Q: What sequence folds into this?
């Protein structure tokens, strides 16, 4: 499933354009904002990958944005605290802040599970 | 209604943002985030909480390159462990200036790199001084840090790469040297084979010459016996008869005296045939003239002698060679040219004296005349003797149009002078001079080929061989050679150093240097160290014997 993970270290506008075909394919488009190799960033990435494998196998794409290298990329989604996960597709857009260690809360945030 | 919808939408948005703010605060409180995006007067940046750089530290500590952070003036304020390992240091060098660890010659380049700051990805080779005094070759790069006062310096150990490069160059050099040696050995082998061929040809010719000499001696005995029998004996018998008759008839005494004169003439001719006493007492012109008269009398050859009025004084050996050449050539005119007349010219040209014999006889191929040793033993013998005194022979001939042969000898031939000056004293046994030679070369093939070549000459005795300069010095003391033939490029000790040591201890030894290369610096160093002569290996066969015979 690694092929679905796209790490973008350089600001390339085309990266942000979601292709129509992709949008209609039903594939989840997730973006994880990290700060280099900070411990919480690494935890968030590991937790996200595990959750996706369990609940969205074959139907997701993760883009990892390193804000240490490109701080300006934080503006698009008004990122304040890092790590932050942004669910871009399916709409509505949702943000989940933190290392995603609370699985229940993350699944609710991703709308994969109803809030209790 | 529309107003109410707008209010609802604003409320939902505010609620959403409030939820997000609450979630952010909660995540911070729970320690689920460790970095923040801030935008202030310094621009956009991410602030990372302490401890987050641990993975980077681990990476820096574990990487195989030496890494350090230095200030603009070169002061080290951080370095990884590999930095110390590569430089062989066991103490922290924080606070030292990086320049104190770099070799003096590389400092300006590193100073320039630090002054340039980002260096544009430029890499430079820098030699570090290790703690044990050895040197560490490195490839060094600089990278700027966020803090403009500091630079990150990373270097790679190049010692293994340099060692391999050195090994590759050495290997290539050895391969080239081996190929050179093999080429030279092949060349020497070819020369040796050629020399052997020439020796074989010469030996064969000498064998035939010896046979011819025996036959000639027999013919000469027969001719002398005939002269004694036909002339002298008959005259003596006639004389005895006349003397017997004169006892009774004294008037017959008048007939006795002419017979006595005839006996005297016959005896003189016989003596002249056996030896050329005239040559010892008379000049060359008179001697040749006398012989020409004999040929006319006995064989009917009409000879015209053209001689310069004043010929330079010649050593007796030269006079003898010229006379014998003229005699041989005139006899050839009778024997081979089938001519009844010949011209003999005795002249001087460029300080040399020559005798030239011309005939109008049958003629032949001049190359055959000079080179064929099977049928012209007289000429062959003359040619060899001429070579010995530095003379030469030339011929021009055409079938049906006669032959011209010229024999030239120098008026002051060094070898003749030497030959005359080194006449054996009565009772003194003459010993041939053999030069004792030691051969030194690290290439075994070449050394053996050289030894075979020298040995084949007969005048050189190989008394020892060595494969390097050190061994040569030791061996020279033991065998005390006349001459050392020594390669200049050798392991352990080269030929230049060896020549210096040998010259200091054995000033009388002659040292001849050999090399495939002829750089002026190397030759000058060799000659200054005590070498007597230098020969390029590619011109060995042309020059070595001359250099050795100069001794």
A:
């Amino acid at each position: 499933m690694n092929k679905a993970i796209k790490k973008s270290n350089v600001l390339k506008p085309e990266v942000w354009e979601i292709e129509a075909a992709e949008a209609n394919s039903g594939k989840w488009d997730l973006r994880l904002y990290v700060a280099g190799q900070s411990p919480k960033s690494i935890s968030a990435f590991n937790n996200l990958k595990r959750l996706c494998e369990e609940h969205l196998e074959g139907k997701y794409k993760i883009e990892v944005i390193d804000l240490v290298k490109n701080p300006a990329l934080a503006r698009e989604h008004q990122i304040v605290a890092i790590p932050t996960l942004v669910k871009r597709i399916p709409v509505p857009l949702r943000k989940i802040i933190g290392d995603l260690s609370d699985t229940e809360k993350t699944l609710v945030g991703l709308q994969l599970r109803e809030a209790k | 209604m529309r107003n109410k919808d707008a209010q609802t939408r604003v409320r939902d948005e505010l609620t959403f943002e409030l939820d997000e703010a609450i979630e952010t605060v909660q995540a911070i409180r729970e320690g689920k985030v460790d970095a923040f995006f801030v935008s202030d007067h310094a621009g956009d940046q991410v602030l990372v909480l302490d401890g987050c750089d641990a993975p980077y530290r681990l990476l820096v500590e574990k990487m195989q390159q030496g890494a350090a952070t230095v200030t603009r003036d070169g002061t080290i304020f951080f370095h990884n462990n590999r930095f110390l390992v590569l430089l062989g240091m066991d103490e922290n060098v924080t606070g030292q200036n990086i320049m104190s660890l770099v070799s003096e010659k590389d400092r300006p380049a590193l100073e320039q790199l630090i002054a340039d700051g980002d260096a544009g990805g430029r890499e430079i080779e820098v030699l570090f001084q290790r703690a044990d005094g050895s040197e560490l070759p490195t490839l060094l790069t600089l990278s700027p840090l966020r803090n403009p006062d500091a630079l990150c310096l990373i270097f790679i150990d190049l010692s293994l790469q340099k060692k391999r490069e050195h090994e590759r160059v050495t290997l290539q050099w050895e391969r080239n040297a081996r190929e050179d040696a093999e080429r030279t050995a092949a060349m020497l082998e070819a020369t040796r084979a050629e020399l052997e061929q020439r020796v074989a040809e010469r030996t064969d010719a000498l064998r035939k010459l010896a046979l011819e000499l025996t036959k000639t001696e027999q013919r000469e005995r027969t001719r002398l016996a005939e002269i004694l029998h036909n002339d002298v004996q008959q005259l003596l018998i006639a004389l005895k008869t006349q003397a017997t008759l004169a006892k009774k008839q004294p008037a017959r005494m008048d007939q006795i005296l002419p017979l006595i004169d005839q006996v005297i003439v016959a005896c003189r001719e016989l003596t002249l045939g056996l030896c050329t006493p005239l040559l010892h007492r008379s000049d060359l012109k008179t001697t040749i003239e006398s012989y020409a008269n004999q040929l006319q009398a006995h064989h009917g050859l009409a000879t015209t002698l053209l001689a310069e009025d004043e010929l330079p004084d010649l050593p007796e050996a030269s006079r003898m060679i010229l006379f014998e050449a003229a005699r041989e050539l005139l006899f050839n005119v009778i024997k081979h040219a089938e001519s009844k007349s010949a011209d003999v010219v005795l002249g001087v040209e460029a300080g040399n004296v020559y005798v030239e014999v011309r005939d109008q006889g049958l003629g032949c191929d001049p190359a055959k005349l000079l080179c064929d040793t099977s049928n012209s033993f007289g000429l062959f013998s003359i040619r060899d003797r001429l070579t010995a005194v530095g003379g030469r022979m030339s011929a021009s001939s055409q079938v049906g149009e006669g032959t011209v042969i010229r024999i030239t000898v120098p008026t002051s031939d060094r070898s003749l002078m030497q030959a005359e000056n080194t006449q054996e004293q009565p009772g003194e046994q003459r010993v041939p001079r053999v030069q004792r030679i030691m051969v030194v070369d690290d290439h075994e093939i070449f050394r053996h080929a050289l030894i075979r070549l020298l040995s084949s000459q007969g005048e050189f005795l190989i008394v020892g061989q060595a494969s390097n300069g050190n061994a040569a010095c030791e061996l020279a003391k033991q065998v005390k050679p006349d001459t050392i033939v020594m390669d200049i490029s050798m392991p352990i000790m080269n030929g230049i150093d060896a020549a210096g040591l040998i010259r200091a201890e054995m000033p009388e030894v002659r040292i001849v240097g050999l090399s495939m290369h002829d750089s002026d610096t190397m030759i000058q160093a060799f000659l200054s160290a005590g070498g007597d002569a230098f020969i390029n290996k590619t011109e060995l066969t042309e020059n070595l014997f001359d250099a050795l015979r100069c001794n």
Notes: Chain B is about 50% helix and 20% strand. Residues 179 and 185 of chain B are 10 Å apart (CA to CA). Chain B touches chain A at residues 20, 23-24, 27-28, 30, 32-37, 43-46, 48-49, 51-52, 54-56 (CB under 8 Å). Residues 413-431 of chain B have pLDDT under 50 and may be disordered.
